[in-house]
Amino acid sequence: MNHTARRIGRTLALVLPVVMVLSGTLAVTRVQWSGQDTETQLLTASSETVSKQAKAPAPQDVLRDKLLLELREKDPGAALTSLQRTVEGRPSLAKHCMSIAKALGKAAVDQYGPTRAHRFSRPVCDTSFASGVAQFS
Q1: Model's pTM, two decimal places?
Q2: Helix ranges, 31-118 (H)
Q3: Virtual CA dihedral for 112, 84, 62, 77, nearest 10 degrees?
Q4: How many helices (H) and strands (E) does the chain have?
Q5: What is the 8-class DSSP label of residue 58?
Q6: Average pLDDT for consecutive 10-residue bins of the chain (137 residues)?
Q7: Whole-angstrom Cα distance, residue 122 to residue 48?
Q8: How far apart are CA 120 and CA 30, in angstroms?
Q9: Of 85, 95, 91, 96, whose CA–CA distance to 62 is shortest?
Q10: SS3 for 112?
Q11: In sequence order, what are the residues at sequence separation of 6 or more whose Cβ sits closer than 8 angstroms to the Cβ of residue 134?
Q12: What is the DSSP letter of 75?
């Protein structure tokens, strides 16, 4: 009997402080510390955070989005030609060429199906477009 009481006491000694800290933390987060509406305060805080951390998209992301739009509006061949010309004009984008061509391959499969998308394959970026088509077929 004495052993059981000691075990229960030890368990409570470990669990009770944790429960009290958690309940206190939850209670503090529920208190409205300002006279403003809580939702308004949260929206204000989150909008400040976003405006401070917002950055311009990376050049390769802008190029990928532009080429995906061109693929949808025209065809994958036009997008691949634009990709090749852009990489030739801006060699700094060459390291992203393969990933962009794969994304174009996936988009071509989504739009045209695997068989028709393969017809647009070209040796742009080490045939990454064809790899993207094959991977997502």
Answers
A1: 0.59
A2: 38-53, 59-73, 76-89, 97-112, 114-118
A3: -20
A4: 7, 0
A5: P
A6: 81 75 65 57 53 78 94 92 92 91 92 89 80 81
A7: 46
A8: 58
A9: 96
A10: helix
A11: 105
A12: -
